[in-house]
Write a structure and sequence with these properties.
Elements lengths: L12 H24 L1 H8 L6 E6 L5 E6 L5 E3 L11 E5 L2 H8 L5 H6 L3 E4 L2 H18 L2 H7 L8 H17 L2
Parallel strand pairs: 1-4
Antiparallel strand pairs: 1-2, 2-3, 4-5
Length: 176
Amino acid sequence: MGTIREVKSGKKSLKKDYVAIMMWFMGRAIQAAASVDRDVRKEFAELPDRFTFDLCVMPDGPHMIVGKDRKGYVRYMGWDTEGKRTNLRIKIKNLEAAILMFTFQESTALATARNRLVVDGEVPHACAAVRILDIVEVYLLPKIIAKLAVKRYPLWSPGRKYIGRVFVYLRTVLGL
């Protein structure tokens, strides 16, 4: 009898890179939206001091770490989890589920209902994080796509939506 050859699965590096780029952009956009949008500021204000959350894809990343610094400002803290304490970890169960979420084929609420997310932390904090993600997605995406990405599309005034969108994009790209 011959030896059995071990076959390893593909790495899916293109999908992982896409999700990593989307998480990087989303993390910076959350930081930008916290200085532009009153609802995002309110959600973060109700969270504990120095609160940090990590949105990650199981089993080995990528990660998006966002939290409040010592002064209470919201900061995107990168993707390296080494030495960072997180109060909340929202884990996407696999890369395929992350692709569905970050190509906006499936909303966060639908992903939760289909058991694609695992929450390690307090549920009210996870709900606040999801609300923040939904607000940021409304700013970043055109309405036709944002309606797929969020549970309910908000009824904002055109000034809030378009002027806020410009400021969120500028701050995201410039890293302010």
